[in-house]
């Protein structure tokens, strides 16, 4: 029998390759991150309210298999091959519409109920990855509550075919990519920033022959953006003395985020996430990096430039040598504004040059204004006056004037309001200033979509609010959630179910307010306020 040979004790182990030694920390870091994510997912799943909300989003995904959300030719004669193969043609009938509408309404109701029950006061922290678990069921659902994702896919296809998206609309990519776009936007060129169009181009390059899958894949950037928001918003809140868990609940787990940022795959998600991250960087003193991040956000959606108000405010807060008086403050604001605005402008120019798409978006900024949105206060007031003038038989030339006049007055008032916020609020509360500026721009603009409220509404989660103001945010959230559900039921021809959902939402809000009165009067705040300490520019 052969004896095993034992190496002498003096024998050294063979040396490893240098690249293997260099890779070890990264492998260990990735493994540690994977363990932490797994633990967070398990803790989140253990929460019964998270499971309730996930059941809701599963029902929303099931209810989305209806003519209200699927491509227009799905249930036409002949129906799509997949519908035929699965034998679900009946979903396009009146019975199918009723069933899918009920699933959608019940799903949203469960999601809202779970969200309201998870509101933190002095209880446990909301599960950090609840937003991810709630998002997963709707990742493969058709675009929800808006057809903008189909427009994104068409614009990505235009870039893929080396056409100018700022000169031509989806009509120029006739076929499946143009067919699903809302008829209002088929002929209109893109109003979005160059970074947004290149991301759309990248997504479409993965599915160049399938418009539906390309539209669904637009959720990937939105999901990553919500992940960045879940990281940045609680940390930004804590730097200003607001509970991070409250910010997570109010700003990230908000049902409107699930419905529109994830469900609708809107590019606004990326803009808001980058703006929030920029404010976090600025609060840590990284002002120039924050300005570059705002440039990236503006290259996605141009309204992000308003976030410079907050960065300038943080720069002013860092000044310990600022003399008292309005003149000194004005000089400091102009100095910081010019420097930080210049950095943002240079970074935006560099992104534009790298994209190769140019500045054609400038004349296209008026494209969204062509829609008459009755949610917009100026447009609503102008439309009411227009209706009254027509009712009393006034000339058509007179009746056509109230809407554009009201919209112009609204824009002037909005600009004045933003100027006041910049001067009075930004030096004292930069995050509130950015949130207020976005909300004023939204309220004074000619068009409002529900997801526009998230521009500034989410940042309110990082602001120290009274219980009354938190209730107001919850009320506005439920109003626009209800609006989305009712709008979907009208599209499905089942408006009565939408009215029933609205009544349930009203009853649920009343019950939540009663329970909230039994709790603490103020949102949970951090034990100590950590002041931001930006470096001087």
From TrEMBL:
Compartments annotated for it: namely:
Membrane
Listed Pfam families: MptA_B_family (PF26314)
Its protein name is Alpha-(1->6)-mannopyranosyltransferase A
| Family that this chain belongs to | Belongs to the MptA/B family.
User: Which key words are in the record?
Assistant: Glycosyltransferase, Membrane, Transferase, Transmembrane, Transmembrane helix
Q: What is its main location?
A: membrane
Q: Where is this region: Disordered?
A: 1-21
Database matches in InterPro entries: MptA/B-like
Its membrane topology: Multi-pass membrane protein
Q: Which residue ranges does UniProt annotate as crossing the membrane? A: 53-70, 90-116, 128-145, 211-233, 253-281, 287-316, 337-362, 405-426, 432-463, 470-486
